[in-house]
Amino acid sequence: MAMKLRPWLLAPIIIIVLLAGLAVFLWPHYEGNVPRITLEKAPKGLGLKNEIDFQVTDQGKGLRWVRVYLRQGQKTAMLLEHKPEGPTASVALKATAAPLAMGFSQGPAELVIEASDNSLRNWGSGNLSQIVLPLAIDTTPPRIMQRSGITYVNRGGSAVAVYEIDDGTTEHGVMVGQRRFKGHNPWPDQPRAAMCLFAFPFDEPRESRVSLWAADHAGNKANAPLRWRLRWRNFRADKLNASDNFLAEIQARFGMQAPPTAAATPLAVFQWVNVELREQNHQRIAQAASQTGPYQLWSGTFLRAPGKTMAGFGEHRTYFHNGQEISQGYHLGIDLADVERSPVPAAAGGVVRLAENLGIYGNCVIVDHGQGLSTLYGHLSQMGVTVGQTVEMGQELGLSGATGLALGDHLHFSVMVDGIFVVPTEWWDPHWIQDNVLYHYEESGLPTPLATPAGGKAAGQPQAAPTVK
């Protein structure tokens, strides 16, 4: 006889099934992944006006809101409140803070960033993430003062400035027009003493202003006058004929690299190479040259590779074809021609930052000599060093050649300061180095800032060097 299910037993079963189904449905909405807050750079201080960039991500039900506020004692002010429209997994935000204008005082404070998601946890308020950043409100600009005497610089040349900075200074250097050169602190026992190698670029207007600059942890910035004198000089200008054979050779070398719009004719390829590819190469050079450190990796006069000078620095070249001007450019180095496949020595000690085929420069090596100073060796037929390798003055880097935008075997040699091409001959002149670099350390009461990582000798140099004091 079949057992008859009684109604009073059926009701609880139905309720349990419904509750179980509801739990299965709601469980994902109770996820416990808290939002993640990531700052591009955590501020250590706030100045007159500041921007704080950060990103918030959520791996669960998406972000509900993001808030940023500044807190000092009993005073709190909202800097940002963001509520996404619809489920959002990630958002990049920028909060702006002007503490004094908002009524805050100089001194310690806290920057608070909070984010909540759409989870049903915590009675429906979601998962909460919070970071609290202790910092200081400081609107006093840093002080910077020249320590060395008058700095003389040639048009297209290099120079060094020695100066004093405040303890809280985080960035500093020299401004030349709109170009900013980065300074360094290579004297550990005198952290306020600083130096900056800079250039007056060949294409910089004669009336450009040169000054010292500094910034602190709160974003405050300051400028100070630099006592300096400019020695103006003119560079050579040449008119060059681009023959059909020359253009055909350039097309054979670079035609496959040129975009379709520039690959139609040999003339179009050359124009692309001389302008657009040259600019791309210079951007890559600047990136490689930016890999530097605070210490001087060289000593003495830079070594000149053997060979006859075939072209000088700063030459303005105008190219003609069939009597018509087709392109212009500047030669930003010195061409030295010796016998074919001549050994190419390092001009000074340093670290290899680039060793690759680089467009118009062909097989190219860049050596960093510290403090933003670097040398470039182009058109090599063969490279004998690798990136990251430490080299000494005179060490063979490769063999001369005719790669890139070169039709005859020679070495293209360049010197750069913070990626800006400068007159190489200055660095071959011992009197110039003594009067314009080393003397400024001496008159400032500072030793030459040589790197001495181990064994008491400068990195990349065969001779002994004094320990930094």
UniProtKB/TrEMBL annotation:
Q: Which UniProt keywords are given for this protein, alphabetically ordered?
A: Membrane, Signal, Transmembrane, Transmembrane helix
The UniProt entry's coiled-coil ranges are: none
Alphabetical list of Gene3D superfamilies matching this protein: Glucose Permease (Domain IIA)
Q: Where is this region: Disordered?
A: 450-469
Instruction: Recall the GO molecular function terms of this protein's record.
Output: metalloendopeptidase activity
Give TM segment ranges: 7-27
Composition bias (Low complexity) maps to 451-469
Q: Which residues form the M23ase beta-sheet core domain?
A: 330-421
What InterPro entries does the record point to? Cell_wall_metabolism_enzyme, Dup_hybrid_motif, M23ase_b-sheet_dom
Protein name, entry field:
Peptidase M23
Q: Which organism is it from?
A: Desulfarculus baarsii (strain ATCC 33931 / DSM 2075 / LMG 7858 / VKM B-1802 / 2st14)
